[in-house]
Amino acid sequence: FFFHKRHTSQNYRAMAKAAAAPSLFDHEKKFRASDDDALEESSTNNISNEEPTILADSTAVNGVAPYHYVPLKMGGNGRTHKNTTASAALIQDIGGLPALEKMTIQFYSNAFLDATLDNFIRSHGDPHAERFARWIHQKLTGSSVWDEERASRSSRPVTVANGHTIVVHDRSSAHVAAWHSPKRPDEEVGRHFKLDECRVWMRLHFWAMREVVGDKSPSFTDYYIRFIGHFVNVYESTAPTFARDSARWSADPKNIEEYIDNGRTMNDVLGLSLGQALSQIPQEEAEDNVWPYDM
Description:
- With 295 residues, the protein is mainly alpha-helical.
- It has helices spanning 2-20, 24-33, 36-43, 85-94, 96-111, 128-141, 145-151, 171-179, 195-212, 218-232, 243-249, 253-261, 274-278, 283-286, and strands at residues 73-75, 80-82, 158-159, 165-166.
């Protein structure tokens, strides 16, 4: 009887907390409104039977495409990423969608084990890697593979923390679900990504890129780091400054060994102030106000 009474009391408190909080739909709308790229994604239906135009690079030597700088093209008010023929060619350089899927599968295999990131992932059973790879492909090539995948998703809500439910149908709703993951401590539910968490995410993601893409296309690697630098800004405005450093992290096997030995916890970045974090990267990067949009 005592256990039942305590359990019921806990349920009442959770229900009251959920009722008092803004709905996740409102949270989703507010976040989407702050992200010009997400607004374009939600308002554009790119489903098409036509393949994007991609120029082949016939000058690759021994399977390695020569480096050339491909700038990020921005549209809208200068805050929306636009694909170009050159960015589409970079995807062909690395092997197309199959290569992207290998990269995102590798990323999530590590993220599921990470002490920080896994708390944001409600379920390992969702097709995270497939969705992420298709989003990247569509963003860089102008294809419709992500829109096609979204159109096939179930409209059934998933349950997150405090009994809330949300339909995960795009990038904005997926991140709201992550912020309200039932794995997160109660006091952190609903809180957006912080700088240290963004650095962990970028390190693991660029590590996956290094393992799958390697030196196959230096141009893709350079572009993709800047691409992620652009998109991570909406989650934490100080995070782009650390993208290049995050990409370098996995170049040293000792960093990976230490990370695994520490229970897959990045103690060297977690909990740092912005000033402490900036002291860890080259001064020219810490003071660079034009990257990733200009060299």
